Amino acid sequence: LFASGIFSRRTLTMASGYAGLAPVRPARDPNGNGPFDCHGQGSKVTGSFCHEECEARHLDPVERTRWDEAAGFHYPAKPLVVITASRDMSRTASTWAFNAVRLLFRQAKEACDSYWIRQLSRGKLEKRLETGAHVVVKTHEWTGLISPKTFDDAKELFSHVVVSVRENFDADPAWMNVATHLIHFEELVAYDKANPGDVSKIGALSVLRKLADHLGLTSLTDHDLKVVDYELMALPIPSWGCDQVTKHWPFHKRKGGRPMPPDPRLE
Predict the structure, then answer these.
(1) pLDDT > 70? residue 42
(2) What global pTM score does this model have?
(3) How many CA atoms lie within 13 A of 93 on its CB side?
(4) How many Å apart are CA 17 and CA 132, to the nearest integer?
């Protein structure tokens, strides 16, 4: 995988920020008002107003506390580029996967910038890496939108490619060829309908553990994963338009019918 630009998990664990995190923010990451920050008016880099496929940075209120040293966030010594990919309208819970990666980094107190990018390029990724934070990207098919050479150039920066799949739904072969981790829809939505609180049967928790391990976030406890699971279940679904932070649309819905769990932070 070194030739493709996608490194092994062991190499990433050794070379990335997990061996040591920078305790202070890089001077190049402005306090929420940088060239990529969008507050409903677009950004200096994207050069347009915020719209349904805005490719600017949209952080949630907790993520924005990283500029407060008391919040305990750290910047990685070597930022990762995590791609979460699927076919457009694939119904494989790809938006869940995107938010899961984002919230796992948040729970681990590692600075992370998340984006939607329709047409990937090396230049787009390099610019977004300038903040010193991890970069997480939600995207769909690239075939026919960019050239194979453009994709190969961008691929050299990928550290992880998380692809969501579902039985009897065709996966995108171009992304499957470079996937480093698969999220299976059927496992994600599994739970004991007779006893929804049985954590041993909640598939989302096992999916989160595997994903956290893949990202090198091995210090996250079972309680941390319950918090992330709760946060994912509690993310709002907009009544119109796109929620620019979560990338949720009105057509998104809770998968599998699992009841909302209690907030583990209150237990």
Answers:
(1) no
(2) 0.86
(3) 22
(4) 11
